[in-house]
Amino acid sequence: MPRFLSISYHDEQNRPAEAPSAELQQRMGELYEEITKAGVVLDMAELAPTSEATKVTWSGDKAHYTDGPFTESREVVGGYTIIQAKDKAEALEWARRFLEVQGRYEPTTSVEVREIAE
Amino acid sequence: MSERNTAETVETVFRIESARIIAGVTRVVRDVGIAEEIAQDAVVAALEQWPESGVPDKPGAWLMAAAKRRAIDLVRRRETYARKLAEVGRSLAETPPADDPADADDIDDDVLRLIFTTCHPVLSTEARVALTLRLLGGLTTREIARAFLAAEPTVAQRIVRAKRTLAKADVAFEVPYGAERGERLASVLEVVYLVFNEGYSATAGDDLLRPALCEDALRLARVLAGLMPEEPEVHGLAALLEFQASRAGARTGVDGEPVLLADQNRTKWNRMLINRGFASLQRAGRGPYSLQAAIAACHAKAVHYEDTDWPMIASLYTRLLDVQPSPVVALNRAVALSKAEGPAAALKLVDELSDVPALRDYHLLPSVRADLLESLDRRTEARAEFEKAASLTANTRERDLLLGRAARAASGEPPGPASERP
C-alpha cells in the first residue's frame, strides 16, 4: 500500500487574524478523529511560521544560513500529513476532505499530494 | 485544474467508507450478506445520480444515508421480514432519519460490532480471516485468493458459507461485555495477527513477504486502536505490528532472499513505524501481544545487532511463557538465553523441546538447534540439523538459505549468525 506525503500550502502574509469559529474547530476535530479511526494517517503536523525557519545552503565549500521569513515566497508549506492509502485516488479524497474543512477557514490553502518513493 | 472523474470518485469513496456502510446497514438488517448487497446498491445509485447532481459535499454520508434508506425499505417491505421487524423495531427507532448526517459515535460502534461479528468463534479461522478482509478490509475475493495462494472460487465459497453460518447461528450484532469480552477480543486480535503473519512470513510459495497483506493487517490494527483506545492489548498488537513492519524493507536482499535479523541493514528500518511502535507500546499492557511488542522494541532500540539487550529479551520471553505457554515461545526464549548466557545452556532447553509433538514439523526447531551446535563447533550434527530444517519449510527462499548454511557448517567456515526470525 503506497504512502503519500500531502503538503499543505498557505499564503503566510494573508492568514486569517482570528481563530477558527467554534463550529469550524469542532469540524476539524471530527475530521482528525475520522482519519485516525480509519487507520490511514501515519503522521501529521502543522509547521511553525517561516519567520522561525532558517535556510541552509552550500556554496564555496561552506554552509550559509538565511533566517526567515523568506520575502520572495508567498505560498509556504504550512503542514504535512503522511498517509497510507490503497491508491492515489484515496489519498486525493482525504486531501479533499481536509480542504472541505480547512478551506472554509483559510481559502488560499492548497494541498499537494505526492507518493513516497519506496 | 480539473474535476476528478465521477465514477472514480464513487469507487474511491465507497472503498474508504464500505466497512462503515456495511456495518451501519447490518445494524438494520442483521445480516452481513444482505448488508453487503445493499451497500453495493447504494454505489449503483451514486453512479447513476452523481454525474447529474454533482458529487455531494459529504459523499460518505450520502452513501450511508442511501444505503440505510434501502435497508429500512427492505425490512419494511418484505413479508418474510415481518417477524424480524418486531425484533429490529428497537434498532429502527434508533436509526437516524436517512437524510440526517450520520452520528459518528454510532458508526464507530457499528464498525466494532461488525469486526466482532466477522471474527466470531462460530466461524472457522479461515472463514473469519476471509470475511474480515472482505467486509472490513474492503478486499475483493480475487485479492484475498491471491494473498493466500488459494483458488478464487474456493475463497468465494468460503465467504458465502461464512455469511450463511452467521445468519443461521443468529449471531448477535454486538460488542460483547463482561466475561465474554476478553475471549471475543482475543479472537479479533488473532485474526488480525494471522493476516499479518501470513504476509510477513509467507508459509508457502516463492515470496518471503506479501507486503500488501501486512499492510491490510496493520491498517486493521490501527483502526481497532482508534476504535477501542481503552483496550491495552489492542495497542500491544498495534505496537507489535508497527515494529515488525518497520523491518520489512531490510528482511529481503536484492534477489528476494531472506536476510537474518543479525545481518539486516538497520538503516533500512523504517523510523516512522518504529516511533509509532513505541507510541503504541506506551499504551500497551501485559498481555501476550504487548509482551511480544516489548521484545520487538528491544530489537528496534538496538542500533547495532551487538547492542541487543538479550537478558531483557530473555526475561520478557519468560513472562510471555507465563501468560501464553507454548513450545514456540519456549524455543524463542532458548534463543534469547543462548545470547545472554551461552549456547550450552540453551541447547539443553532446545533438546527438551525436541519431543514436543507441536514442533515436530516446525523448521525453526532444527534450525535453532543447528545454530547452537554450530557455535559449539559440533559441525557434523549442525549440518544434519540445517538439512532437516530445510526439508521442513515450504518456503523456497527459506529452504535455499538453510541449505546454504548446511553447506557452510560442513565446510568449516566460521559459524554464521543465529536464526531468529528475520
Write a brief structural summary.
The complex is a heterodimer of chains A (118) and B (422). Chain A is α+β, with helices and mostly antiparallel strands and 118 residues long.
Write up what this structure looks like.
The complex is a heterodimer of chains A (118) and B (422). Helices cover 29% and strands 36% of the residues of chain A. With 118 residues, chain A is an alpha+beta fold. Chain A has a single domain (3-115), classed as 2-Layer Sandwich (Alpha-Beta Plaits), CATH 3.30.70.1060. In chain A, β3 and β4 form a beta hairpin. The radius of gyration of chain A is 16 Å and the shape is flat. With 422 residues, chain B is mostly helical. Among the domains of chain B are: 3-93, Rna Polymerase Sigma Factor, Chain: A; 201-301, no CATH class. Chain B has helices spanning 6-29, 32-53, 59-77, 82-94, 104-118, 125-135, 141-147, 152-169, 179-200, 211-227, 232-246, 271-282, 288-301, 310-323, 327-341, 343-353, 364-375, 379-392, 396-411. In chain B, α1 (6-29) runs antiparallel to α2, α6 packs across α9 (179-200) and α14 (310-323) packs antiparallel against α15. At the A-B interface, α1 and α2 of A face α1, α10 and α12 of B. Chain A: It comes from Streptomonospora litoralis. Chain A: This is YCII-related domain protein. Chain A: Residues 7-102 form the YCII-related domain. Chain A: Belongs to the YciI family.
Termini separation of chain A (Å)? 10 Å
User: Which CATH top level class of chain A fits?
Assistant: Alpha Beta
Main beta sheet strand tally, sense and closure of chain A: 4 strands, antiparallel
Low-confidence stretches of chain A: none
Compute the gyration radius of chain B: what is it?
Answer: 25 Å
- The CATH superfamily of chain A is known as Dimeric alpha+beta barrel
What is the overall pLDDT average of chain A?
91
N-to-C SSE string of chain A, H for helix and E for strand: EHEEEEHE
Helix content of chain B: 55-70%
The total count of strands of chain B amounts to: 0
Proportion in β-strands of chain A: 35-45%
Q: Based on the structure, what is the oligomeric state of the protein chains?
A: heterodimer
Q: Helix segment count of chain A? A: 2
* Overall pLDDT metric of chain B: 88
Find the structural class of chain A using helix and strand composition: alpha+beta
Pfam families (chain A): YCII
Family (chain A): Belongs to the YciI family.
Protein name (chain A): YCII-related domain protein
Family (chain B): Belongs to the sigma-70 factor family. ECF subfamily.
